[in-house]
Amino acid sequence: MTCSRSLRAATLLAVTLFAATCGAQAQTPAPKPAPKPPAAKPADAKPAADAGARTLSGGGSGSGPILTRDELRACLTQEEAIRKRLEDHQALRVPLNQEKDAIASEQQALRGEQAGIDNTKKAIEDLAARLRAFSERVAKWEQRVKEFNEAGKTGRSADTERNALNAERTALDKERGALEEERTRMASSAQAQVDAYNAKARAVDAKVSDWNARNARWNDTAGALEAERSTWVGNCGNRRYREDDEIAIRRERGGK
Q1: Burial of 86 by CB count in 10 Å (0-12 exposed, 13-18 middle, 19+ buried)?
Q2: Rounded to an integer, what distance in angstroms lies between the CA atom of residue 98 and that of residue 100?
Q3: Distance of CA 15 to the CA centre of its chain
Q4: Which of 14-18, 75-79, 157-161, 228-232 has the lowest mean pLDDT?
Q5: Considering the entire predicted model, what is its pTM?
Q6: pLDDT tens-digit readout, 50-96
Q7: How far apart are CA 95 and CA 182, in angstroms?
Q8: Which domains does the chain have, with CATH numbers?
Q9: With 90 as the cut, is the pLDDT of residue 210 above it?
Q10: Which class for 241: exposed (0-12), middle (13-18), buried (19 or more C-beta within 10 A)?
Q11: Half-sphere exposure of 69 (CA within 13 A, CB side)
């Protein structure tokens, strides 16, 4: 895009000469006509070397002296190198974002497993409550046995009470066995569930940490490239150059 440049306005100097009058006598010669003013000077023309000047950034009027052909060649080379590095670096953003989405899916799956662990925890709490209730029943049974033995009861009623206590003990023993089996099974299952969850959580956390580190490096590199690009804009992008020089350089490169 060609940028317009202002030209210095020419100063037009019109000089009018008047003849001096020599008294009011009738014989005074008529005043001489004023000489023809000099032709206006044409507006200062920009040096031919500035003709067709433009900027690499394509905007503004540019600043600083016009780039020499060697400087323009160096600026074009730098611009191509920076652009290529920016493109290559930006391409790395795609797999990073894909990996981030995959990790997010794993985290979502972990949250689903966490719900299962919460359900197991509730089942364990329910079993614990039943175990406490069972212990209280056993304690009450033991207290009745103690009182029965201390009373030294005999006869038919004593036999009936003794049989009832023995039957209750049998039932308690059976229930104790079932509760112990459930406790052992649940403890083993819950531990395996928690161990598996923790292993997956640690693996996901490791992936998150690794991704964060690589993402930080990507951002640091992006910042460095942007700083380099900004420096190029100041040194090259905002400098004017001659279109003829650009055409010559493109020809040197085979029209690229």
Answers
A1: middle
A2: 5
A3: 71
A4: 14-18
A5: 0.59
A6: 545 688 877 656 677 899 999 999 999 999 999 999 999 999 999 99
A7: 48
A8: 91-237 (1.10.287)
A9: yes
A10: buried
A11: 11
Is pLDDT of 157 > 60? yes
Say whether pLDDT at 151 is over 80.
Answer: yes
> What is the spatial distance between Cα 215 and Cα 211, in angstroms, rounded to a whole number?
6
